[in-house]
Amino acid sequence: MTDDRRMSDEEWRRRLTPEQYRVLREGGTERAFTGKYDTNKQAGEYHCAACGQTLFESRDKYDSGSGWPSFTAPAHGESVATRRDTGHGMVRTEVLCASCESHLGHVFPDGPGPDGLRYCINSAALDFEPEDKPA
Length: 135
Ligand code: FE
Known about the structure:
10% helix, 135 residues, binds fe (iii) ion, 3-stranded antiparallel beta sheet, Metal Binding Protein, Guanine Nucleotide Exchange Factor, Chain A, 6-stranded antiparallel beta sheet, 2 helices, mainly beta
């Protein structure tokens, strides 16, 4: 397996669509209600669109009404990393893929689960793999 963190900018551009690159590598945000997974209710796993590791699971997805895929928790404790983001005049907590350090979205303390977290994630950062994938 390649070390995704060592991928050059040129390689990322080659591997990703322009929208994926803008979100994952430049910290961009897709417009609300435009992402392909916002309303997806299928059972399955959400993988990092950049490196493929499992990030979120459908059992933790809920409809937050925000216009972005929302999860109460990552798939595993080690799936994502966070860091303080003071951009755009706000103090937010950025969510990154723990494996390739690509930008995924932000996490807010207003979620419905026991941890009270809302992982607000760009569809462009995700690749969905349905549970009952046709053979
Ligand atoms: Fe990744």
